[in-house]
């Protein structure tokens, strides 16, 4: 099993707040080193709120609570209500899967983080696949047109790319042989990360477009700004924590 892409020791961390942090190759996209790097003795669950992550948590909760309350406060339908419930739950879990892994730096933390990341993604995947099955069954039973809205197009594209991304990650992790061996497979992690961030943007765009469907506006009475604010908070919480070194960008050279 390829558990971590690097056996190099992590770069030195700034240990006190008083020390001015020296920029290193592990500097996050925004902010200073240490803002979003898990300290060697820190518990893994703190990664979920470390640095700017708490902003993402606010956004993720806003999207989840807005959707679930809108569904349960309005007319329920067996072949429609589970779709927004499951898709917003899947999105919430997907955000947690990213946040838990982002700040890991030591090989041991990366290994544990990868297991939690994969488990959260499995739950997220089951949620997405069930929600998409519900909406496609709805369309089939009621003879409704596919690709009826921007959300429909984005939903199909995002669902398909998510599936490819899961297969890519599982392949590198569990069967590196298909990529020519463990070393070659490990070198592909950075593309999985690029794919992951691109997919997060696509998932959020799909959610944003969902607010503009006739059902969301007419039945669920979702206010577009609540989804807009939730999406913005997720973005400003996740992207400043991107570790450039993990994307293969070494700014120390
Ligand atoms: C990442 C999250 C989501 C994904 C991947 C997703 C995916 C999809 C897919 C694949 C379809 C069917 C498209 C077709 O066959 O043409 C669809 C339709 C639909 N979704 Fe979502 N969805 C998501 C979130 C949501 C949310 C949060 C809501 C409501 C608040 C929602 C409401 C709807 C509605 C009303 C339709 C039918 C309208 C249409 O197809 O134009 N979806 N979605």
From TrEMBL:
Record field: transmembrane: 48-73, 85-104, 116-135, 155-179, 191-210, 222-244
Cofactor names: heme b
UniProt keyword Metal-binding, yes or no: yes
Residues in the signal sequence: none
Region of interest called Disordered, as start-end residue ranges on this chain: 1-36
Pfam families reported for this sequence: Cytochrom_B561
Main location: membrane
Membrane disposition: Multi-pass membrane protein
Gene Ontology molecular function: any one: oxidoreductase activity
Compartmental location: Membrane
Keywords: Electron transport, Heme, Iron, Membrane, Metal-binding, Transmembrane, Transmembrane helix, Transport
Domain Cytochrome b561: 46-245
PANTHER family for the chain: CYTOCHROME B561-RELATED, LD36721P
Name of the protein in question: Eukaryotic cytochrome b561-domain-containing protein
Source organism per UniProt: Pseudoneurospora amorphoporcata
């Amino acid at each position: 099993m390829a558990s971590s892409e690097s056996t190099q020791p992590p770069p030195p961390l700034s240990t006190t707040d008083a020390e001015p942090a020296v920029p290193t190759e592990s500097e996050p996209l925004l902010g200073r080193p240490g803002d979003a790097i898990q300290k060697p003795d820190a518990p893994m669950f703190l990664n979920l709120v470390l640095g700017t992550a708490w902003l993402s948590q606010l956004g993720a909760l806003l999207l989840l609570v807005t959707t679930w309350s809108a569904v349960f406060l309005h007319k329920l339908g067996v072949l429609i209500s589970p779709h927004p419930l499951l898709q917003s739950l899947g999105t919430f879990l997907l955000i947690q899967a990213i946040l838990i892994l982002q700040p890991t730096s030591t090989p041991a933390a990366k290994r544990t983080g990868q297991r939690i990341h994969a488990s959260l993604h499995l739950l997220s995947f089951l949620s997405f696949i069930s929600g998409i099955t519900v909406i496609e069954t709805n369309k089939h039973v009621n003879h409704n047109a596919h690709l009826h809205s921007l959300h429909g197009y984005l939903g199909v594209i995002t669902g398909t790319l998510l599936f490819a991304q899961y297969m890519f990650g599982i392949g590198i992790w569990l069967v590196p042989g298909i990529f020519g061996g463990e070393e070659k497979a490990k070198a592909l992690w950075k593309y999985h990360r690029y794919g992951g961030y691109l997919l997060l943007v696509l998932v959020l765009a799909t959610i944003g477009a969902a607010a503009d469907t006739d059902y969301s506006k007419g039945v669920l009475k979702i206010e577009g700004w609540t989804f807009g604010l939730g999406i913005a908070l997720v973005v400003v919480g996740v992207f400043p924590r991107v570790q450039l070194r993990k994307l293969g960008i070494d700014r120390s050279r």
